[in-house]
Amino acid sequence: MSATENNQAKDDNDSGMAAKDPAKRRRALLIVTLFFVVLGIAWLLLWLFVFSKREKTDNAYVGGNQVTISAQVPGTVVAILADDTQLVEAGQVLVRLDSTDGDVRLRQASSALAQAVRQVRQQTDSATGADAQVAARRVDLKKAQADLNRRLPLIAAQAESPEIVQHLRDGVEQAQAALDAAVAQANAARAAVEGTEIEQNPAVQQARANYRAAWVAAQRNAIYAPVRGYVAQRSVQLGNSVQPGQQLMTVVPLHDLWIDANFKENQLRKIRIGQPAEVVADVYGSGVKYHGKVVGLGAGTGSVFSLLPAQNATGNWIKVVQRVPVRIAIDNKDLDQHPLRIGLSTETTVDITDAEGPVLATAPASQPVAETNVYEQMASKADAEADRIVADNLGRKSN
């Protein structure tokens, strides 16, 4: 018999002895049982301290602002200065329209403002002249009254003829009438300018407002980006005749993004505002994790806000588990390192260990959700140009 056959026979004998030994069988069974018990306890502890403290969903997508760029004045497109996928800065010109009509209206408004300032200056000078005329008429009246008073004693002594005294009385009445007319003219002249400086005169303010509107309209032939972001959905073409409100392109800021995580209704029991969250985007895989926090829960389920809401009160009804969007803000530092695009799929996990926070917002927002100063700068430039025109026509240099 060979050595191999001897070893095989020995192993068969050992196996037979082990199978026939009840103690070894019980020990093996005990080891297997203990293994599964330990595995079960480990799973229970893992569920109690880890899985039960988290809510997870893969029905979650990246959200962000989509800023629609549209025309504010009618015109013809003569230049397109940004295209899809390109980065644009706030205040950068994206599209230019033909400026001919706007320039004409701006020149007309500029001339009207200059004319209004000059007319008010003339009215102010006329009011000053009218006041001088009142003073002169008062002097004339005083002189006529003095002449009459000197002649009245002479008529009593029959040293003056009654005709001369009557002429003097007529002269006093004429002087009084001239004074009254001068006062009325002065009042009329002052009514147009009294109480305000030339710059604050209503006629000047009206012309200034018209100029400001024309200046802003002329500037709106250049369509600016209100925010920093990336161009998408460009539909405008050269030569297009555009109207106010017509969409030309979209600018998408890829900062301050959020996640709209659609949790099932039975997952919302312990989700609260302020809870930390962890996000994994499919585009980068599990190796990249984004950190964020819950900032709010939707006011209704997705089906309620759908184009055709379900009519559950009609016909046969099948219960469908609803989902509610939970908004999760992402840390911008993570976005700087690994940029995301709106609409990307993610897997979101919310830590519900601390379930003491509010379910709904308790106070209105104290800060703007988004803002831009691009248009404020435009208005301030319009005011500066109007100030220059007013100053030039007042005969003094503008600052």
TrEMBL record:
The record's Pfam families line, in alphabetical order, gives:
Beta-barrel_AAEA, HH_EMRA
Q: Which GO terms describe its biological process?
A: bile acid and bile salt transport; response to antibiotic; xenobiotic detoxification by transmembrane export across the plasma membrane
Coiled-coil regions listed:
165-192
Q: Which GO terms describe its cellular component?
A: plasma membrane
Q: List the keywords (alphabetical).
A: Cell inner membrane, Cell membrane, Coiled coil, Membrane, Transmembrane, Transmembrane helix, Transport
**Presence of the UniProt keyword Membrane in the record:** yes
Domain Multidrug export protein EmrA/FarA alpha-helical hairpin: residue ranges: 100-220
What's the protein name?
A: HlyD family efflux transporter periplasmic adaptor subunit
Describe the location of the p-hydroxybenzoic acid efflux pump subunit AaeA-like beta-barrel domain by residue ranges: 258-343
Family matches, as SUPFAM superfamilies: HlyD-like secretion proteins (SSF111369)
For this chain, the family text in UniProt reads: Belongs to the membrane fusion protein (MFP) (TC 8.A.1) family.
**UniProt subcellular location:** Cell inner membrane
Q: What is the species listed in this Swiss-Prot or TrEMBL entry?
A: Dyella soli
InterPro entries the record matches: AaeA-lik-b-barrel (IPR058634), EmrA/FarA_HH (IPR058633), MFP (IPR050739)
Annotated membrane-spanning segments are 28-50
Q: According to its record, how does it sit in the membrane?
A: Single-pass membrane protein
Instruction: List the top taxonomic levels of the source.
Output: Bacteria, Pseudomonadati, Pseudomonadota, Gammaproteobacteria, Lysobacterales
